[in-house]
Amino acid sequence: MDPGGLSFVTSIGTSQSTLWIHDTGGDRQITSEGYSYWPSISPDSKRLYYLVRTGGTETFIKGGLWVTNLETGQRQRLLPDFQIQRFSISPDGQRVVFIAVDENGHTPVWLAALNGQTPPRKLTAMDCWVAFFGAAGEVVLEGEEDVRPFIFRTKEDGSELAKVIETPFLIAQSVSPDGRWVAAQDASAWGALVLYPIGGGAPRRVCAGCSMPQGTDPVAPSMIWTPDGRFVYLKFATSTYAIPLQPGQILPTIPSGGFASKEAVAAVPGARLVSANDVYPGPNPSIYAFVRVSTQRNIYRVPVA
Q1: Contact 253, 245 (CB under 8 A)
Q2: Are 196 and 170 in contact (CB under 8 A)?
Q3: Contacts (Cβ under 8 Å, ≥6 apart) of 52
Q4: Which of 118, 224, 232, 272 is the most exposed place for a label (fewest CB within 10 A)?
């Protein structure tokens, strides 16, 4: 602030976020314009879904849903009537469940076919933060009840909405393929990643300090399963490991009290390091997406009205 109090000097800039794919051919850039984020690779590894911010401070956490064909480079805007906060692609790659932001700032959950042949369907008008596909025919979501967030489950037609985890203020990261476990951060224990059973039972700690609290920038999930359930990815700090699962196995072998270090994760039989940097894993360990953010800033003097 200047001595007279009529203006102040500050740094003002803009950021650009581009999406990249790493596969057997190396790294290649997929997007080049705007601020792209929340990449999600399709189960067949042929498409990349992502959000693009539409600009302005009021749209900081929402954007349009886009898809790029990774073989041809062709890209397309999906669901143009919606501004979307979060989304998840179904294990069969045919549907998307998403949190839409309406004109009044509410955030209901919708379900849509990716081919556009059927109109999107609202599953609940509850204000929600995230939604995932769970067991067959079900969606697991985190929504607000009495000004507190809880984990709920509903049928894909929007019926039988019910709270399934009584612990409030969780930050859900993913849901297991059988719909029985939610990987989440607990707001009362920052840095800890915990598996919560849907429908009751004792939670299981995955780690005490592997899952860093999320700030304003999107970050990859700390734990997520491949659509076919053959691998579970576990991120310790920024290092992501792929842990193989046997047929019928949903959870990896987790030490009592959780993993104490990334070396402990690496020691799990069959575990492999996917990347030492923050990435969004694909349907197998050979492919993943990542984000590169560049910022340009200058110093400005701003008058005080």
Answers
A1: no
A2: yes
A3: 31, 34, 35, 36, 37, 63, 64, 66
A4: 118
